[in-house]
Amino acid sequence: MNRQSTASSLPAPVLPHVWEPASAQEAITLKRQYGADSAYVAGSTLLRTQWEGGLLTIPAHMIRLDTIEGLNGIMEDEQQIRIGALTTLRECGHDHRLRIHGNTCSTACRHIAAPAVRNLGTIGGNISSAVGDMIPALLVHDARLVWMDTEHHPSEYEQELVDWLEQVRVGRRSLYAVLLGIVIDKSGPDTAPDLHNHQNSAPFHTSLSSEPSWREISFYRKVGRREAFTPSLVTVAFRALMNREGVLVNVKAAAGGGAGLAMRLSRCEQLLEGKVYDPRYTAELAALVEKEWVSYSDPFASESYRRQTAGNLLAAGLWETLHQEMERG
Ligand SMILES: Cc1cc2nc3c(=O)[nH]c(=O)nc-3n(C[C@H](O)[C@H](O)[C@H](O)COP(=O)(O)OP(=O)(O)OC[C@H]3O[C@@H](n4cnc5c(N)ncnc54)[C@H](O)[C@@H]3O)c2cc1C
Questions:
Q1: Residues whose beta carbon lies within 6 Å of some atom of ligand 1
Q2: Of 9-23, 233-247, 302-316, which range is least confident?
Q3: How far apart are alpha carbons 281 and 299 in whole angstroms?
Q4: pTM across the whole model
Q5: What DSSP assignment string belongs to 40-53?
Q6: Half-sphere CA count of 24, side-chain side, radius 13 A
Q7: Residue 101 pLDDT greater than 90, yes or no
């Protein structure tokens, strides 16, 4: 106020308006009203970096999402875990239910940025950025996103993460949708495999009657430009069920990292599905990732370097994880 009246030769400062909606519908109404001159703000850790770096213009209207009730915290029922979009990465990384039922997600949260950023940064902001390191970890859990997209229709809807990524890839994501939460199905050591997908798998069939016990194996690996507190170059996630004979089923693998869109690696999954892991798969798997994963070049790393790194990360991660499993017995 004072500055405006005394320094008359200077233009009045233009401050952003900070809106505090009480519901997702109110947030959407504001976003529709102010369009490109507004932004949803969660922890603002990414937005601030983009504003300060000149990658994005500071919008005239900031729409806070942390004033909306019910978007914070982790809930569970018998089948699912639901993570509120405004839950911080720190809370996700420390949650024991996520550690048990969403191991790769829990690991990913603990490896994003530094603790100070994780205290503010949210899982919803990480996903909404479309390039967050959480995304490969969530892909191997077949995560679904819970959205609200219209000011007039109060009901939320679920969408497969993989489908939303495709919308982003083709430039058709909604500019107004508010991410409310993330849902993953619970998994555990005795999760039964989906038998219908394995009718042609000989090792699977022979082991099935005598081997009821399947345990989950999973890992998440990240390579950055420095060892810690830095955005990733490449991230990979892997998840499967394995029986005592070493047969792998329900294999899921994904890669992402940097400013590239994450994706499931279906050819790698097919290579391993229903098989007992054999060391000769290591080179084959690395080569398949290199072929399958679509990445990009920037001043820090070429596309071929990223692809090769993703291949090596996935192959080495699987080899290490299986060895640890064997040692555990
Ligand atoms: C030093 C530093 C290191 C970092 N390292 C990493 C890293 O290693 N890996 C990584 O993945 N990220 C990293 N980040 C980026 C960022 O901190 C995380 O992605 C974080 O999770 C973003 O969450 P946020 O709540 O701060 O999002 P914000 O900055 O508030 O928002 C990010 C984007 O998502 C939108 N948005 C947020 N929430 C919603 C919602 N609920 N619905 C719709 N749109 C929404 C915003 O409009 C904005 O476009 C780093 C950032 C910094 C500053």
A1: 39-47, 49, 65, 85, 89, 112-113, 117, 120-122, 124-126, 128-129, 132-133, 178-179, 231-232
A2: 9-23
A3: 32
A4: 0.90
A5: EESS-HHHHHHHHT
A6: 22
A7: yes
Token pair 């996103």 is at which residue? 145
Could you read off the pLDDT of 264-310 as tens digits, one per residue? 999 999 999 999 988 888 899 999 998 898 888 887 788 888 999 99
Question: Residue 216 is encoded by which pair of tokens?
Answer: 């989950």
Query: What is the pLDDT confidence band of residue 8, given thresholds at 50, 70 and 90?
Result: low
Query: How far is the C-alpha of 206 from the C-alpha of 219, rounded, in Å?
Result: 27
Span 236-267, pLDDT tens digits: 999 999 998 899 999 999 999 888 899 999 99
Q: Which residues, in sequence order, are CB contacts of 168 under 8 Å at separation 6+? A: 130, 261
Which domains does the chain show, CATH number per domain? Answer: 14-64 (3.30.43.10), 74-185 (3.30.465.10), 195-328 (3.30.390.50)
Ligand 1: nearest atom to the Cα of 179: 42
Please identify, by atom number, the ligand 1 atom nearest to the C-alpha of residue 132: 11
To test the pocket of ligand 1, the residue of 26, 28, 31, 46 to mutate (highest count of ligand atoms within 8 Å of its CB) is 46
From 45, 63, 90, 110, give the residue whose CB has the most ligand 1 atoms within 8 Å, as the site to mutate: 45
